[in-house]
Amino acid sequence: MLKNLIQKSRIKSPWLLHYDCSSCNGCDIEVLACLTPVYDIERFGIINVGNPKHADILLVTGTVNQRNKKVLVNLFDQMPHPKAVIAIGSCALSGGIFREAYNVVGGVDKVIPVDVYVPGCPAKPEAIIDGVVLGLEKLKTASLPARL
Amino acid sequence: MILTTVYVLTGFVIGPLLGGLISGLDRILTARLQSRIGPPILQPFYDAAKLLGKEKTVVNVWQAFCAFGYLAATSMAVVLFFLRSDLLLILFIQAVGAVFLVVGALASTSPFSQVGAHRELLQILSYEPLLVLVVVGIYLETGSFKIGSVLTHPEPLLLKLPFLFVVLGYALTIKLRKSPFDLSTSHHAHQELVKGLLTDYSGPYLALTEIGHWYEIMLLLGLCALFWATHWVGMTILIVVTYFMEVLIDNVSARMNWRWMLGYVWAMGLTLSLVNLIWLYTA
Taking CA atoms, what residue in A is nearest to B187? Predict the structure, then answer.
C-alpha cells in the first residue's frame, strides 16, 4: 500500500527544474506559458522549483555548448533519484540551426541521458505538457529506496 | 489517563492531517485569487509522500538531525497544546523547533541556505517578543498561563484583547511564510533566493520540514482559536476569517526586506501590545 501511495504521489507531484542552455528564449517563454492561468499546470501538482535538490524533472532548452555543459551535468547530478530529463525544442534535441557552430556540443543527450524529446521551434506548450506526462511514466516505474 | 492518551494521539495524528488540508486549501485559494484552478486539496500529502520516497541525500549529518529535531519540537508543541498545557512552555518549545531549522540550514555552505538562515533568525527576532506579549496579555486577562483556564474564561478574549489579536496576526503572517514577510523561504516560486532556508533540505528531509510546518500551522491557528474559546461557531468564524486574510495579504503584497520587516513589525507590534496591556491594566 505504501508503495502504491508513493507511486501515485510521484505522478501527482512532479516538480520541475528548468535550465536554459543558451536558448534563444523562445522555448523558455513556452515553458513559462505552461504556468500561466491558460494552461495552469499546478492543477496537476506541477511546480517550477528552480532548485535541483527539490526537482523530479529537468527541462532543458537550447543548445549545449562547451561552457554550459558542466553546469548541466552538475544540475543533473544534484537531483535526487528518481529523476527524468526532458529536452525541449530543436536546439536541445540536436543543436538545431547552431549544430555546426564551433562551440556547440550538440543535443542534450551528448552530455546527460534524455528520457523524452519534445520537438518544435519553439515547442508548443501543449507539446511540453505531453512530454512531461511521458516523463512521468519513468518516475512511476522507477525503483523505491531500499529502506523508507 | 485515557483522556490524556486521547489528547496526545489527537494532537499527534489530527494535527498534521488538518494542517496538510489547510495548506492544500491555501494553495487552491491562492490559485483562485490568481484566476487559476489550482491543485487538488490533497496536494500537500502527495508532495510529502513523493518526497519521502525519494533518494536520501544530505549535506551532512547535522542537517538530517536538525530536520528530525524540528519535527519533534513542533509536534511536541502541538501535543502540549492539546493537553491544555502552559502557553509559555509551548512557545519556548516552538522556538526550539524554529532554531533547529536555522541550524540545519547553517550546516550547509551554500550561500542560499546561509542567507536564508540569517533572514530566518531575523524573522524569529521579529515575532518572538510579540508572541510572548500576546501570552502576557492572555495572562493579565485570565490570571493564568494555562490553556485550561483560557477555555473556562466566561467571555471571548477577543473583546478584551483586540489589539493583541492583530499583533498575533503579524506573528502568524511571518510564521506561515506569507508575503510581505516571506524573506527566508516561501511556498511560491520566488527565485531571488531559490528556496532560501530550505534550499539544501532534500527528499525525505524536506518532507519532514513540510510535516513540521503543518504542525506549526495547527499550533498558530490554535492560538488564534483561544481568542474566541467560548463557542465553537465564533471560534470557527474567527479562524476562517483570519486565515482568509492571511492568504489575501500574501497575494496582494510583495516580499519586503528585513530592515522594513523588523522596523515595521516591532513598531506596530510593540505599540499595539503596549496600548492593549495598559488598557487591560487600567480597566
Answer: A49
Which of A42, A82, A145 has the CB atom closest to B56's CB atom?
Answer: A145
Chain B residues whose C-beta is within 8 A of a chain A C-beta are 27, 31, 34-40, 43, 45-50, 52-57, 189, 191, 194-195, 199-203, 206
The label of the residue with cell 550547509 reads: B108
Tens of pLDDT, residue by residue over B97-140, are 999 999 999 998 889 999 999 999 999 999 999 999 999 999 98
Domain ranges of chain B: 2-282
- In which order are the strands placed within the sheet that holds A57-61? A47-48, A15-20, A57-61, A84-88, A116-118
Would you call B200 and A53 a contact, using CB atoms and an 8 Å cutoff? yes
Q: Where are the domains of chain A?
A: 12-138
Strand, coil or helix: what is A57? Answer: strand
Q: pLDDT for A49-59, tens place per residue?
A: 888 999 999 99
CATH no. of A12-138: 3.40.50.12280
Q: How high is the ipTM of this complex? A: 0.89
